[in-house]
Amino acid sequence: MQPDFEHIESLVKPGDFVFTRIDNILYKKVADTSCSWSSHVGLIIDQNDDGSFVVAESKVPRSTYSSFRSFVERSEGGRLEVRRLKGGLKDDQLTKLQQEAESRMGLWYHFRFNYDSKKQFCSKFAYDVYHKALGIEVGKIETFTELLHRNPQTPMGFWKLWFFGRIPMQQRTVTPASQLESTNLETVYSNLENFR
Fold first, then answer.
1. pLDDT of residue 155
2. N or C, where is the chain less crowded by C-beta within 10 Å?
3. Cβ-based neighbours of 17, under 8 Å, separated by 6 or more
């Protein structure tokens, strides 16, 4: 189902979080393990003169800027939810976000989702941009032990293979799910009712 971009773009603003679902076994496992439909997140970081929006994201192989439409078109079935910081952003806050996102452009992607690595992954990118620029935490840093404790039904076989036999249970990470559920955000657009 193709999203109604004209309608969506009339609602979104720079600073918004954009949640999608990547049609790939690794990212589906990320979503399932974190008890969420979403496996990817980016930040709407700017608006072009023609009214289109720009998303800053960490994706394979490096963090980059993408058009809002191309970002959403990568989502399985067009699933999309856009959430905004409660109370919105002031101009100077947006400028700080833009500067922080720019400082992370070109960083390599981390396939093992280690928050403490110098590399990036999508939810770490979004978390760090907001936290470093504004001192606001969107999402929760947690260990793999804490994450897996919340979903004890997670089939461990995939993750054992992914980590070559041993899951680093004390490694810290941050998930799109924890950001999607953040009480610091409010939903401004969602089409998930179309998929229930």
1. 85
2. C
3. 41, 42, 43, 44, 82, 83, 84, 126, 138, 179, 180, 185
Contact criterion met (CB below 8 Å) for 133 and 97:
yes
Question: What average pLDDT does the chain have?
Answer: 96
Token code pair at residue 71 = 């970002």
Rounded distance, CA 119 to CA 44, Å? 21
β strands within the chain, DSSP E: 17-20, 40-47, 53-58, 63-67, 81-85, 142-143, 172-173, 185-190
Confidence bin at 52 (pLDDT 50/70/90): very high
